[in-house]
Automatic annotation (TrEMBL):
UniProt xrefs under PANTHER family: ATP-DEPENDENT DNA HELICASE SRS2, UVRD / RECB / PCRA DNA HELICASE FAMILY MEMBER
InterPro entries: DExx_box_DNA_helicase_dom_sf, DNA_helicase_UvrD-like_C, DNA_helicase_UvrD/REP, P-loop_NTPase, PDDEXK-like_dom_sf, PDDEXK_AddAB-type, UvrD-like_ATP-bd
Binding site for ATP: A20, G21, A22, G23, T24, G25, K26, T27
Catalytic activities: Couples ATP hydrolysis with the unwinding of duplex DNA by translocating in the 3'-5' direction; ATP + H2O = ADP + phosphate + H(+)
Protein name: DNA 3'-5' helicase
The enzyme's E.C. designation: 5.6.2.4
PROSITE patterns: UVRD_HELICASE_ATP_BIND, UVRD_HELICASE_CTER
Domain of life: Bacteria
Family, similarity comment: Belongs to the helicase family. UvrD subfamily.
MF terms in GO: 3'-5' DNA helicase activity; ATP binding; DNA binding; exonuclease activity
């Protein structure tokens, strides 16, 4: 570490502001600070709270801390703000009248919930009868922003009354009436959510804050617990999140925030830059460390970025705190940003693609550069891979010309979008399928389906059929269904086309029949299985197929979200739901950024935050595109309710400039600015003012470049979002669970399906049944521990609320399973209510490290009796009525063995008893582990981890199914229908 970093790590007492410029080793400082606090015994791991904004960032931070902390285990609370709030609320649910099994609504679920209850809201203006759902999304956005500002319905209603009491123009009165209508809707929305046991993402923060403000004993407990608090990306916090941090840090005052005001780019989602700008005002005794030594970029690129961002003065920490934030590179001077200037947007894209081709085809010889432009190591050769290059756009919609240009030249590439899942070919096919079986009159989606890569109907045949349907004013479905009744002279399609029609209609009719009794998830999965589409994608072994599988898995996540809240789970209801959320602007992200895939990265600057690339192209840099035009919310938060200190000056221009700065500082070696006169509109466009600010000159002197006639023709090549190449995987830190180890030991090829490709499957009914029982049991045990034991009736209600209808053979099968579960729970309730043993841990997550391998798990229950006699209990929903067999299962359970190993490593105590508690029979199988058993378990984990790492690096997983007697595991495998090596078919 450099001196600045050491100071940031070792300054442990009192408030601390770490201003970490781009590429200065921010994550290194945070993780080493946590390790330092633990190493110096200033606090236990469980007394440190580290908050960040994304699951990915929290995961990376955890990984680094796990490696740094020598104990092999880590109990630090590292999480997102929302995950932290969720944990606090669930742990204290009974104290505040919440059910601990509450459901968090995603944005699409909020839209559906609002729509289902639309006429329970007292709305007039915001529920026009001609289009009743018109303002749903806008109202939800308003409610979310109000929660960002820690405004509840009571405060909003009070504001509207004050507004109504003021004398003013007629327009003001109308505005007051609108706000009153919205305030009442906000109150109704919150009440309906509470009644249904739902929370949204904003609630996870605001309800936690409210809990701390109203339950002093809980606040004191948390304040006492968290001796050290760290917040990453502090410039991205909103008002409510900052209030949450302030109230927690009130006792020990050891609050450390890390951020960079110049990288605050999330105003549109509520981020309050004033939090970091005013940190020293909030904490008058706060110390300050500024990290300026940059490990990423060359000095020329840093100087250019600094030229740009100084145009935001005086609304920057550098001015307000009178510090020097100019970044200093350790990598030498290097080259300044290069310019690419073209006539049209398509020519601009082609020139960018050509430049990439040149960069990859030849080595960059730094020895040929002027001495001041060379890296610190002097003359050397730099080889670039496709993965080292990024094309960054201001918005998703601007990527298409560049994707087409890359595709035309055969340059491997992938588009990582913050939205666009529903537009991906593989997902669009499934949507068309669901619409086709729900609405026989929708010819367009049926046409998309028959011409898709699933059926590949010859285009000539598809056009003939669609044209004939149009002439006869019939739906395409009608024509396909009755194809054999038409005269041959009406249209002449190929024999291949006729065979495809027969297959399409057979698949659709089977799916329609299934949709009458099964939910949308099962219908969709059955279609994939019947057509062999998943199997085909998996067996291609190409990047394109792998990403398609992962996007399909994300689509199944959306189906699951729908199923969790929908009253009717049919395909047609899901189609209506999809239509509603898409109209509300919902468009989920595609698969996440994968640094191991050797392809040019095309993404938005927002999506590139936190990443770095050898070469960066900032493209489409024209006025009106960058800076983008300011967009107002459909329903604005009243200024009187905004509690953050709003920045002075043109805050939108300042935010856009910061976004440009973030784009610039992603580059390590080379940075290109590109733009063009003509992007398809009526007027010639001007260069972005940010380019001129970054280059520190009044106008660009870039040379205008034109393409040849042939190049202009070739630009019309079709676009592919992902290029074809063999898929390779790698992992920095291997993470294992009992389940993943068991999957690998059962069959390495199954491990590949589950944990590498993540191929979606329907949950087996036994899994659904077990999950519902476990949730109900955990809730009962928590209530017992809190001293407020649930009634048996409430336990049954919780069981039914968490029940999912997925995977059951028939409705009768499901009903019998529910009845069976009720009996099992009632019997468990009777046993537990009579028992005086109080659980010490319930559904407690754990994690520890073995030779760099991270092992995670979750205890169902741990009992600690006097004399440190520990019993670890795992609840089982499977049937077992024989005591000897139950004991044998406990002895053979890898899950219990891993639990015991962790407990020993964490507490230096070998558990006295490992227990499998079979809920249906009440039988408990048990085993008394020895230290030798624990050593054997550790060896199994390490051997398995070594084999998995080897298979990942070779990209070769053997199909080696375990045998149960004479029966191979293939017989029970969920992937047997797509696995080319399955032995299930020959049994």
């Amino acid at each position: 570490m450099n001196e600045e970093q050491k100071k940031a790590v070792t300054t442990t007492e009192g408030p601390l502001l770490i201003i970490a410029g781009a590429g200065t080793g921010k994550t290194t400082v945070i993780t080493r600070r946590i390790a330092y606090i633990i190493e110096k015994k200033l606090a236990k791991p469980s007394e440190i709270l580290a908050l960040t904004f994304t699951d990915k960032a929290a995961g990376e931070m955890e990984e680094r801390v796990d490696i740094l902390v020598p104990y092999g285990f880590i109990d630090t609370w590292i999480s997102t703000f929302h995950a932290f709030g969720d944990r606090i609320l669930r742990e204290n649910a009974f104290d505040i009248g919440l059910s601990p099994d509450f459901t968090i609504l995603s944005r699409p679920q909020q839209v559906l919930f609002f729509q289902q209850n639309l006429f329970r809201f007292h709305l007039e203006y915001f529920r026009p009868l001609s289009n009743p759902t018109k303002f749903i999304s806008a109202m939800l956005s308003l409610f979310s922003r109000l929660k960002d500002e820690n405004v509840n319905p009571v405060e909003f209603l009070r504001f509207t009354k004050q507004l109504s009491a003021k004398r003013g123009k007629k327009e003001s009165k109308i505005q007051a009436q609108k706000y009153r209508e919205l305030a009442q809707a906000f109150e109704t929305y919150e009440r309906l959510k509470d009644e249904a046991g739902f929370l949204d993402f904003g609630d996870q923060v605001i309800k936690t804050l409210n809990l701390f403000n109203t339950r002093e004993e809980i606040l004191k407990k948390c304040q006492q617990k968290f001796k050290y608090i760290l917040v990453d990306e502090f410039q991205d916090t909103n008002y409510s999140q900052n209030e949450l941090v302030k109230i927690l840090a009130r006792k020990h005052k050891n609050i450390c925030v890390v951020g960079d005001d110049d990288q605050s780019i999330y105003k549109f989602r509520g981020a309050a830059i004033s939090n970091i700008l005013e940190f020293k005002k909030t904490y008058s005794k706060a110390k300050q460390v500024v990290l300026t030594l940059n490990y990423r970029a060359n000095q020329s690129l840093l100087d250019s970025a600094y030229c740009l961002i100084r145009h935001n003065d005086p609304n920057r920490l550098e001015v307000k705190n009178r510090i020097d934030k100019k970044l200093r590179s350790i990598r030498g001077q290097g080259l300044p940003p290069q310019e690419i200037f073209a006539d049209t947007i398509s020519e601009e894209a082609d020139l960018v693609a050509e430049e990439i081709k040149k960069l990859i085809s030849k080595k960059t010889h730094y020895s040929s550069l002027p001495p001041k432009a060379r890296p610190a190591k002097g003359g050397r050769t730099q080889n670039y891979s496709y993965r080292d290059i990024a094309i960054l756009v201001r918005a998703n919609s601007q990527a298409e010309p560049f994707l087409r240009a890359l595709n035309m030249r055969g340059i491997p590439h992938k588009f990582v979008g913050a939205s666009g899942l529903y537009q991906q070919e593989e997902v669009s096919i499934l949507i068309s399928f669901l619409i086709a079986i729900s609405n026989f009159e929708d010819s367009l989606n049926l046409y998309n389906l028959v011409t898709s890569e699933i059926y590949n109907m010859p285009l000539q045949d598809a056009i003939l059929l669609a044209s004939y349907a149009k002439r006869k004013t019939r739906s395409l479905y009608f024509i396909l269904k009755n194809l054999s009744t038409f005269e041959q002279n009406d249209f002449d399609i190929s024999e291949e086309g006729k065979a495809i029609v027969s297959q399409v209609m057979a698949d659709l009719e089977e799916s329609i029949k299934l949709s009458r009794r099964e939910n949308v998830g099962k219908v969709t999965y059955n279609f994939l299985k019947r057509t062999g589409y998943l199997k085909r994608l998996e067996q291609e072994g190409q990047v394109e197929g792998t990403i398609k599988i992962q996007n399909i898995a994300k689509f199944f996540d959306k189906i699951k979200e729908f199923s969790e809240i929908a009253k009717i789970e049919t395909a047609s209801q899901f189609v209506d739901y999809l239509d509603a959320i898409r109209n509300a602007g919902e468009d989920p992200a595609t698969v996440a950024f994968d640094p191991d895939l050797d392809a040019v990265n095309v993404m938005t600057i927002h999506g590139a935050k936190g990443l770095e690339f050898g070469i960066v192209f900032l493209v489409n840099l024209i006025s009106d595109r960058f800076p983008a035009r300011q967009k107002s919310e459909i329903i604005e938060v009243p200024k009187n309710l905004i509690k953050e200190t709003l920045p002075s000056g043109d805050w939108h221009m300042q935010e856009e400039r910061r976004l440009f700065y973030v784009g610039q500082t992603r580059a390590k070696d080379l940075l290109y600015f590109s733009w063009s006169y003509d992007i398809g509109g009526k007027r010639v466009k001007k260069i972005s003012p940010f380019v001129l600010e970054a280059l520190d000159k009044p106008k660009s002197d870039a040379t205008f470049i034109k393409l040849s006639a042939l190049e202009k023709i070739e630009k019309f090549a079709p676009v592919s979002l992902v290029s074809r190449q063999t898929v390779l995987f790698d992992v920095d830190v291997l993470k294992l669970t009992q389940g993943s180890i068991d999957d690998y030991l059962t069959c390495a090829y199954k491990y590949r399906y589950v944990h590498i490709l993540r191929v979606p499957i329907l949950r087996h009914h036994a899994v659904v049944y077990g999950a519902a029982l476990h949730s109900a049991v955990a809730t009962l045990l928590r209530s017992k521990k809190s001293g407020k034991l649930l009634s048996s009736a409430k336990l049954m209600e919780i069981f039914e609320n968490v029940w999912d209808s997925e995977g059951f053979l028939t409705i009768e099968h499901e009903e019998k399973r529910i009845a069976q579960g009720r009996i099992a729970l009632l019997n468990f309730y009777k046993r537990e209510s009579k028992s005086n043993i109080m659980p010490s841990l319930i559904e407690a997550k754990f994690k520890f490290s073995l030779n760099g391998v991270i092992v995670t798990g979750r205890f169902d229950r741990v009992d600690v009796k006097p004399g440190s006699k520990v019993t670890i209990i795992d609840y089982k929903s499977s049937e077992e009525i024989d005591q000897n067999r139950a004991n044998a299962q406990a002895k053979e359970s890898l899950q219990l063995a891993i639990y015991a190993l962790y407990y020993y490593k964490r507490h230096q105590i070998i558990p006295e008893k490992l227990t499998l508690h079979f809920l249906e029979s009440g039988i408990e199988g048990f085993y008394n582990p020895s230290k030798k058993d624990l050593e054997k378990t550790e060896a199994i984990i390490l051997e398995t981890a070594a084999s998995i790492n080897s298979d990942i690096k070779k990209n070769k997983f053997l199909a080696n199914p375990k045998y149960f007697g004479r029966v191979p595991a293939c017989v029970y495998c969920a992937y047997k229908s797509i696995c080319p090596f399955s032995l299930a078919k020959v049994q």
